[in-house]
Write a structure and sequence with these properties.
By secondary structure, the protein is mainly alpha-helical. Helix 3 crosses helix 13, helix 6 packs across helix 7 and helix 15 runs parallel beside helix 17. It is globular and about 75 Å long.
Length: 502
């Protein structure tokens, strides 16, 4: 034996056989260990859609929370970061395409896991529809800007929704790397446009770029504040979608936690800055937030930079397209995990032999995501009505999924013998705060013009759980996750069955 050869070199040159490792994983159909940090980051950032969020959420906060909008945004950022830290208790230990659905099942069992899966489907699905509809409205605004009149009543939004649905389907089927990089490129350009506008508004507001009333509001309604917090959280939803790519990431237990930490921080800084500057501008310009207008466009005109409006519409439309693409990407992977677990037909879990993408799930989901906003538009809903209904369902789905996974973290860590005081406090605090916010939000919104969205969310979850209560005995196990395969393990067993461990 050469004394100068290290133990690592000897292990690599002549590894000892490792038994019990199969040649396949339950998720071997995906393109395993191919995505770098940038690709995974692209998924999270695009799902958040920081440009679209920073262009639309400040107006919603000013409308529903008044002077408490800035505080709602700040609390929303903190709650999102607390949820991210809790979710990372799972992402550091488990790689799965099912993301929060699988994590919740690991901690709280089958029924809660299924509820989380349904919530994620509603969250990703309706935010995709919301994004498709907004692409149509912003393209209509752009054409109206050059044509001299609004085109919301034309067929432009419908054509845009159909086009986006087809493009997303093609890109997603062709491969996750292409999908992630297209999303990041589009979102990067959109964010640059939005940052330029925020800087212009900040300079245009002179010696008082941020109203003191936003920092120390005289009248603060708890109901308005909580509603604003939930709306603010919708500005960051999708950050957790990076976990759905953990099977395809090269170093999932390092890459995914980093992405889940830094993407909401970056988006939070942009949204808080945009909220403070835009809300001050709304007050100065007397923008009518309740009308079916684009508040940021009104601000641009007020500050004499109306020329930036068409550029902003392009950027926001591009950001919403990236959001739809990333959200749909996460959605079909949740469907893949549900199919692997036997909750939905196994056919949905099949992957493309060449592109290694869940093509059946894509072909199943994308027509629904495209038809949804089309139905609303054909029914005569205005942009404000349509996006309000879609956003209400999506917000309910996301916040419920976050509440469940934060609750599951405590039980999961205790079961594996790794529960410590601070993760327990963080998880319990996040679950309680998110659950309370969701309850107040649903109660308040049930008496608003968006009540249709609230009841659609509640009824969807209730019907799904009622069905699962009857079908539960047919599901052998839930919470399937990725496992190492022989080619990835030094000294992988040369013989043995190709088991599908769960």
């Amino acid at each position: 034996m050469n004394p100068h050869v290290s133990a690592l070199d000897r292990a690599i040159a002549d590894p000892e056989p490792v038994t019990g490792v199969g040649t396949t994983s339950p998720m071997s159909g995906l393109h395993r260990r191919t995505l770098g940090f940038g690709d995974v980051l692209a998924q999270s950032v695009s799902a958040i859609a920081p440009c679209a969020a920073a262009a639309t959420v400040p107006g919603l906060l000013a409308l529903y929370s008044g002077n408490a909008g800035l505080w709602a945004a700040l609390i929303g950022v903190l709650l999102t970061l607390l949820a991210a830290a809790t979710i990372n208790q799972f992402t550091k230990r488990i790689a799965t395409a099912g993301s929060l659905y699988t994590f919740t099942a690991k901690g709280l069992g089958a029924t809660a896991g299924f509820a989380s899966g349904v919530s994620l489907i509603l969250g990703y699905g309706f935010i995709s529809m919301y994004a498709f509809a907004n692409v149509g409205f912003h393209v209509s605004n752009l054409l109206g800007y050059f044509g001299g009149g609004p085109t919301h009543g034309s067929s432009v939004p419908l054509l845009c929704v159909i086009t986006c649905g087809v493009l997303c389907t093609v890109v997603m089927v062709r491969g996750i790397r292409l999908s992630a990089r297209v999303s990041l490129l589009v979102e990067s350009v959109a964010v640059a446009v939005l940052i330029a506008l925020v800087v212009v508004l900040f300079i245009g507001q002179g010696s008082q770029p941020i109203s003191w009333e936003l920092i120390a509001p005289r009248q603060l309604s708890l109901g308005q504040l909580v509603t604003g917090v939930v709306i603010a959280i919708t500005a960051f939803v999708g950050f957790e979608s990076a976990a759905s790519l953990s099977v395809e990431a090269r170093r999932p237990f390092a890459t995914v936690p980093r992405v889940l930490t830094w993407s909401p921080i970056a988006a939070g800084l942009l949204v808080v800055a945009a909220t403070s500057v835009q809300t001050t501008g709304f007050r100065a310009a007397n923008v009518a937030l309740g009308e079916d207008v684009t508040p940021v466009s009104a601000l641009s005109a007020y500050y004499g930079v109306g020329w930036i409006t068409p550029i902003l519409d392009i950027g926001v439309a591009a950001s919403f397209f990236a959001c739809a693409l990333a959200s749909s990407t996460a959605l079909v992977r949740v469907l893949l995990a549900l199919a692997i677990d036997g909750v939905i037909p196994a056919t949905v879990g099949h992957t493309h032999s060449r592109f290694k993408t869940p093509h059946i799930a894509i072909y199943t989901a994308m027509p629904v995501l495209t038809i949804g906003p089309i139905i609303l538009l054909l029914a005569g809903a205005t942009s404000k009505q349509a996006v309000g209904i879609l956003l209400a369902v999506s917000a309910g789905g996301y916040v419920l999924a976050y509440t469940l996974v934060c609750s599951a973290a405590v039980f999961f860590l205790r079961r594996i013998g790794e529960l410590t005081i601070w993760p327990a406090i963080g998880a319990a605090s996040a679950a309680c705060c998110l659950g309370a916010c969701l309850a107040v939000y649903l109660i308040r919104e049930s008496n608003s013009p968006r009540a249709v969205g609230v009841w659609l969310f509640v009824c969807s979850v209730a019907l799904a759980l009622a069905w699962f209560a009857r079908a539960r005995r047919m599901v052998a196990r839930m919470g399937t996750h990725d496992t190492p395969i022989r080619d990835e393990v030094l000294g992988g067993a040369p013989t043995g069955s190709d088991r599908r461990p769960r």
